[in-house]
Design goal:
With 160 residues, this protein is mainly alpha-helical. The protein has one domain (29-35, 50-159). The chain is 72% helix and 0% strand. Helix 5 (81-91) runs antiparallel to helix 6 and helix 6 (96-127) packs antiparallel against helix 7. The longest helix has 32 residues, at 96-127. It is globular, with a radius of gyration of 18 Å. The two termini are 35 Å apart.
C-alpha cells in the first residue's frame, strides 16, 4: 500500500503539473475506450433492481468507511475509482456494450472529479474551507455542464 501512495510523490511537478497529467491520462482513457452505440434494453427491470443497486452502493461505502482503520492512504487506495467502476459495470451490465459505455461515461465524469480537487487544492489554504468548497463546486458544475453539452452535440462520445 505504501508504494501506491508514494508513486507520484517524487515527481517534481507543481499542482498544475499533476492536474495536467490527470487531464492527459483521462483523455487517453476516453480515446482508448471504444464508443459503441448503446441499445436500450428490451428487458424490463425488476422491481428490486433500483433498491438492490442502492443497497450495493451503500454497503460498499459503509465497508470502505469501516475499513478506514487500515490508515488514510490504504483506505484511499481501497476507495479508488477502479473498484467503484468495476462495481458500476457489473451492476449495470446488460452485455459488453452497456458495460463499456458505463465505464466510458465514468471516465468522462472523472474530469469533474479532477476539477473539484484541483480547485480545492489551489484555494483551500489561501481563502479558507467554505469559499474553497464553494469555488470547487461551482467549477465542477461548470465542467459538468460543458461536458454534457459536448456529449449531447456528439462531440465527445462519437470521437472514436
Amino acid at each position: 500500500m505504501r508504494l501506491a501512495g508514494s508513486l507520484l510523490q517524487p515527481l517534481p511537478l507543481a499542482h498544475w503539473g499533476f492536474f495536467l497529467v490527470v487531464l492527459v491520462t483521462l483523455t487517453a482513457a476516453v480515446t482508448l475506450i471504444p464508443h459503441c452505440t448503446a441499445i436500450r434494453s428490451a428487458i424490463p427491470t425488476s422491481w428490486w433492481d433500483l433498491p438492490a443497486r442502492m443497497l450495493i452502493g451503500t454497503t460498499i461505502v459503509l465497508t470502505l468507511t469501516a475499513a478506514a482503520f487500515v490508515g488514510a492512504k490504504a483506505a484511499g487506495v481501497l476507495a479508488s475509482f477502479p473498484v467503484f467502476g468495476t462495481i458500476l459495470a457489473i451492476v449495470a451490465n446488460r452485455g459488453a456494450v452497456m458495460a463499456t459505455q458505463v465505464l466510458r461515461g465514468m471516465v468522462l465524469t472523472l474530469y469533474e472529479f479532477a476539477t473539484f480537487f484541483f480547485v480545492l487544492g489551489l484555494l483551500l489554504t489561501t481563502v479558507g474551507a467554505l469559499p474553497a468548497l464553494l469555488a470547487a463546486i461551482a467549477n465542477t458544475l461548470l465542467t459538468q455542464t460543458s461536458a454534457l453539452r459536448l456529449v449531447q452535440c456528439g462531440q465527445i462520445l462519437n470521437t472514436v
